[in-house]
Specification:
heterodimer; A: alpha/beta; Rossmann fold; six-stranded parallel β-sheet; 20 strands; globular; B: about 180 residues; alpha+beta; Alpha-Beta Plaits; five-stranded antiparallel β-sheet; 4 helices; elongated
Chain lengths: ~575, ~180
């Protein structure tokens, strides 16, 4: 069968069961947009290429399937760099297709030419420039294979215009042949035995669950391990929902803005069981003071993570789900053989003591003040279904959302963790809603973030993607303001945005959304109820929140986690890092 | 400058012979802050693969992280770490040396001692080639320097594991990672 390269590209995407592509056409990718008209694939026309990339990520986060973005060459490809890097940092499976100038023009500084493969090399798991139409099916098949196996990540395929126009003999490869790519998924049996023994010997163990749990679909296995061993679990910013917040063993989020108990139990532990987590600096604080007495079991599909930051006592390369399942078996075997864990009741009492003493808390609203952002989130949470998907941007609102929401199901929390991309929320929420149209999707955004990518609400309106957006509008770049208040002597430099320019309600309405504003506590529940009733178009709520509110607890940059700072009203009984 | 003062590791990286693969490898070193002391690349006996021999300055990173990060590249097939004591290392140097008639015989003698070849002769200069263990090349460079080096180009070292009576002590990590 003779096909053009463009037809082969779209057919290859169909072969990979792609149901939706997020994109925006332009000169060099034009040929690929023609066969889309006949394809079963839904195309969502974005308003900015960055939006396409984050939508693909949001889609991938909630479905586990690779998100696909397709854009043209040059500026479109460079606009995709941020989402590619974001997906790379958070191990999100994604395939990006970019147009390129025709092969005779490559290297001539042609119109809308850029070295896409060169530019994106360090922000993709792999990328490739396809030089003949015949190679397209193989390139697509390899891209999806690489993006979704091992440690997932973004893969980019750059296709010159003439390659899309030339004809080829359709041939779909049966398998991929990548001699340099064979991810190791099975953990080493001896290491797993060693880990099981360490787990049963430990007095103060903590499971440090990361995003790898979600990528490996290992939430159930994690729960089994935790319940079998009775070990508490912290879930990192990326892994919120990987272990249910309403579970008695769940300690919530650790890290710079983690809750006191999650941070302190890690600090005081004698064994950290790191599962698909990577000892990010926002989790460890000052590294040489991090969990000083803990032995480390580190499970990761990516061998380079083992020993990159903290040297593990038991390193295990493998798929989190498979390794945890084998770990459960190994622990059971030891238990059956008569090995018992030491009495951990004192440790558990210390943990519940911390929980009682230092719960997440904020000072109540004072009459006449702006809204407490935490109160808005709690009301939002209590009004939403249990399996509601929450998508955040980056900053204070992200931390509050992660802290105050109760994530009881995996794949209900989407955010930009590693790269910290402001503006992630709106487009990622759109992608999430496309992937899970059956679920309510709330984007929790800041006013700074919202202004970076809000134009995609036009996409949502036009494509009838009814997401809901809660802007926690404190008229500042809030997290930067917090740092300037705490570490720069309250010298506020370039952080003020204004509460009403733009007018978020008018702006949202102009983009085809329904929009509300809440300024007083009694309005909060009313506008949320109204928003939750709308299911045929996007809704935006402008919540006017208190700009003085800070995210607590906090570990100041450069400090060890022992220096965790609780909110001032809790300070009276500060516990010196749980000693 | 003698290579002996450098703390280095030689790693031999087998890569798929594909456009851009050298950029991927060198880009990785640049991005992660690893210093390359020398680098040599050429196709192998199997035309599908090339071998890149990289001498890494270990002060900049642990060799373990370097190899693990390299492994993550899809086009990297195999990495062998070659310990100097367990490998055969060679390097080629081309040098144009000042050799006025009154000292020419001394320079020639030096070239002969080092089993080098004279490639070209000018009125006051000689171009010579010489190959051998990098230390030998270092020594030659030192000894010829007083006469005046006009231009000098070394290839960077290439290396293979030393053959032993038993299996070669090649510390290879086979397979691939994500």
């Amino acid at each position: 069968m003779k096909l053009t390269g463009a037809q082969a590209l779209i057919k290859s995407l169909e072969m990979e069961s792609v149901e939706v592509v997020f994109g925006l056409p332009g000169g060099c990718i034009l040929p690929a947009y023609d066969p889309i008209l006949e394809s079963s694939i839904r195309h969502i026309l974005v308003r900015h290429e960055q939006g396409a990339g984050h939508m693909a990520e949001g889609y991938a986060h909630v479905t586990g399937r690779p998100g696909v973005a397709m854009v043209t060459s040059g500026p479109a490809a460079t606009n995709l760099v941020t989402p590619l890097c974001d997906a790379y940092m958070d191990s999100v499976p994604m395939v990006a297709i970019t147009g390129q100038v025709g092969t005779p023009f490559i290297g001539t500084d042609a119109f809308q030419e850029c070295d896409t493969v060169g530019i994106t090399r360090s922000v993709t798991k792999h990328n490739t420039l396809v030089m003949t139409a015949q190679d397209i099916p193989r390139a697509v098949k390899e891209a999806f294979h690489i993006a979704t196996t091992g440690r997932p990540g973004p893969v980019l395929i750059d296709v010159p215009k003439d390659v899309l126009q030339n004809t080829m003999d359709w041939d779909w490869p049966d398998s991929v042949d990548l001699p340099g790519y064979k991810p190791n998924t099975r953990g080493h049996p001896k290491m797993i035995k060693d880990a099981a023994r360490l787990i049963l010997e430990s007095h103060q163990p903590v499971i440090y669950a990361g995003g790898g749990i979600l990528k490996a679909r290992a939430a159930e296995a994690l729960r089994e391990l935790a319940e079998l061993t009775g070990i508490h679990v912290v879930t990192t910013l990326i892994a919120r929902g990987a272990f249910p917040d309403d579970h008695p063993l769940c300690l919530g989020m650790p890290g710079m803005h983690g809750n006191y108990t999650a941070v302190t139990s890690m600090q005081r532990s004698d064994l950290l069981i790191a599962l698909g987590s990577r000892f990010d600096d926002r989790v460890t604080g000052k590294l040489d003071g991090f969990a000083p007495d803990a032995k480390i079991i580190h499970v990761d599909i990516d061998p380079a993570e083992l020993g990159k930051v903290r040297r593990p006592d038991v390193p295990i390369v493998g798929d989190c789900r498979l390794v945890i399942e084998e770990l459960v078996t190994a622990v059971r075997d030891l238990m059956a053989g008569g090995t018992t864990a030491p009495d951990r009741s004192e440790w558990k009492a210390r943990i519940s003591g911390w929980q009682e003493k230092y719960p997440l808390a904020y000072e109540p609203h004072v009459e006449g003040d702006a809204l407490k952002p935490q109160m808005v989130l709690e009301t939002l949470r209590d009004s939403a279904p249990d399996d509601c998907i929450v998508v955040s941007g980056v900053g204070q609102h992200q931390m509050w959302a992660s802290q105050y929401w109760k994530f009881n199901h995996p794949y209900t929390w989407v955010n930009s963790g590693g790269l910290g991309t402001m503006g992630f929320s709106v487009p990622a929420a759109i992608g999430a809603k496309v992937g899970r149209p059956d679920k309510m999707v709330w984007a929790v955004d800041g006013d700074g973030c919202f202004q970076m990518t809000a134009q995609e609400l036009t996409t949502a309106s036009m494509e009838r993607i009814p997401i809901k957006v809660a802007i926690l509008n404190n008229s500042y770049l809030g997290m930067v303001r917090q740092w300037q208040e705490m570490f720069y002597d309250e010298r506020y430099s370039e952080v003020y945005l204004s509460p009403d320019t733009p007018d978020y309600v008018k702006w949202a309405e102009a983009m085809g959304c329904v929009a509300f504003r809440a300024e007083h506590p009694e309005e909060v529940q009313i506008v949320i109820d109204k928003a939750n009733e709308i299911d045929d178009r996007p809704v935006v709520i402008d919540f006017r929140t208190d700009s003085n509110e800070k995210v607590y607890p906090m570990v100041a940059p450069g400090q060890t986690n022992d220096g965790i700072v609780v909110p001032p009203f809790q300070e009276g009984h500060h516990g010196q890092g749980g000693r | 400058m003698s290579t002996a003062t450098y703390k280095h590791h030689t790693i031999s990286v087998l890569v798929v012979n594909q456009a851009g693969v050298l950029a991927r490898v060198s880009g990785l070193f640049a991005r992660r802050g690893y210093n390359i002391f020398s680098l040599a690349v050429a196709p192998t006996e199997d035309e599908r693969f090339s071998r890149i021999t990289i001498v890494v300055d270990v002060e900049s990173a642990t060799i373990e992280q370097v190899t693990k990060q390299l492994f993550k590249l899809i086009d990297v097939v195999k990495i062998s770490e070659l310990h100097p004591a367990e490998s055969v290392e060679r390097e080629l140097v081309l040098a144009t040396v000042k050799a006025a008639p009154e000292v020419r015989s001394q320079v020639l003698e030096l070239v002969q001692i080092f089993e080098g070849k004279i490639l070209a002769v000018g009125p006051d200069e000689l171009t010579v080639s010489l190959d051998g263990h990098p230390d030998k090349v270092d020594d030659f460079e030192e000894l010829v320097r007083p006469y005046g080096i006009v231009e000098l180009q070394r290839t960077g070292r290439i290396a293979l594991p030393k053959l032993e009576r038993q299996a070669p002590r090649l510390r290879a990590v086979r397979g691939k990672v994500s």
